[in-house]
Sequence to fold (586 residues):
Amino acid sequence: MAVIADQHQVDLREPKGWRRSSNRIATILMVTSFVVVLIPLGFVLFTVIAKGASVISWKFLTGGPIPPNVLPADVGGMGPAVLGTIEITGIATVMAVPLGILGAVYLNEYGGKNPLATLIGFMSDVMTGVPSIVMGLFIFSIWVLHFGFSGFAGALALACLMLPIVIRSTYEMLRLVPNSLREGSYALGATKARVTVTVVLPAAIGGIVSGALLAVARAAGETAPLLFTILTVTAANPNVFSGANTSLPSQIFVNASSPYDGAQARGWGAALTLIAICFILMIVARLVTARFARYQH
Amino acid sequence: MEQSEQQFIPKLQVPQSAAQQQAAATTSGDHIFDVKNISCYYGSFRAVTDVSLIIYENEITAFIGPSGCGKTTVLRSLNRMNDLVVGAHVEGEVDYRGANLYGKDVSPIAVRRRIGMVFQKPNPFPKSIYDNVAYGPRINGVHNKGKLNEIVERSLRQAALWDEVKDRLNKSGLGLSGGQAQRLCIARTLAVEPDVILMDEPASALDPIATGAIEDLMKEIKSKYTIVIVTHNMQQATRVSDRTAFYSVLVNPESDTRTGTLVEYAPTAELFEDPQDERTKAYVTGRMG
Fold:
């Protein structure tokens, strides 16, 4: 053995030349992109925390509005906007997520290649590209002009925005469910509806929840669709179905364009609050997903 | 037992024509399938042609043959699984206990409740082991906890898996090894107490020990079930089956299309020891594919 090893020295070192260089270049590119992506993210987070953290207090999160010129910044707060955001986004979620999931189930499980399904899928993708302010104007013209400003009108606009995202993400998740699972269920005498509800949806639930959540987070941070639908007032309005309302993003917009220091500081606080709400939402959804997906490994 | 069987195996609602009744009367009670000259198509492509055979009750029937000879296609036409493939259809008649499976009022759902299937690749659901086995009874309306427990234990015992999993019934079915997962799939099929079990190369992904376990299992349960198995493994066919059907490929040199067909069907010992057709002889002696 030793003799053979001496005669033919096996070279197990990393290959030299172009193969090694290309490998290193690729690694460097990947790490660089990762860092570049992190820079704006970290910068936004840092600025918002640095400028907004000082005004955050329980009173800020729940307290009523105060005149914009009042200083210091930590009196009164964003209670109405927090309430409005939770209500409006919540109602939009209740409308858009079930509808979107059912739509995707139709497209993937029932529609197949038929022209109607193809058309719906295409239109839904087109809807993804519609600017959010156009959604606001759309709801303004078909709803607000007839029934007036309300939190519900804002929820409608946000739901229109969420719907195509939910449809697309759910559709992609359903496509990933292996056909062998469907066949296994059919072979036991299940109907198509059974197969979908008891096998396909549970198998895809993790991805569906993630997709829905991205849509919720996107909607919670939208300002443009709300400008023409809730009108953004400073007073709390618990009744979402009637009368102008407010929300965190539109309140940030109003505060940021205000010349007063106090209002601007509260705007930063509101931005931090919004980020925190989305963050909490993400964590909750991860826990829910883990619970649903506990048999997937 | 009697009651539950009626509860979740609905009768096939087939209006029998006079001819069918006659056929049922002339064929003795132990014909499970009467396959009458069927051809299977995927779109306009004819994958299998001219298959006629009779499958008998409480026997294991093996389908063997080279790849692409249509044995899986024929198997899947026996419980209408091919309906799920877009564009697939069957010409000819498949009688199941005297009823035409492709008759006008036959529901594929009702067919598959009586004729179960085990697939080539183990496909446990992403659910707990318990829920995997209880799945079939549940979709067929059994929700009584005690009854379900009983079915799950009995099915897992029949599939020779109970001792390995009885302490982790709430763990995911995806955590099992390949052989265990396949036995779980068999238990899942047994749980609905089907009349026939179709097996599509059930052991092709398994090691010899797991294969042996599944073969023993098949021999054990054949007193209660009729089994049709597709296999690439001729030793397996000789070990487990009572009858063997050999399929082969017809190549049309003009259009270069390949169509599967049934060459020879006989009791297993006869087919392997005294094959009548040259193609069968070449295949079973290993002189060809």
The longest helix of chain A spans residues 18-52. The interface with chain B takes residues 112-113, 178, 180-191, 194, 198-199, 202-203, 293-297 of chain A (CB under 8 Å). The mean pLDDT of chain A is 88.
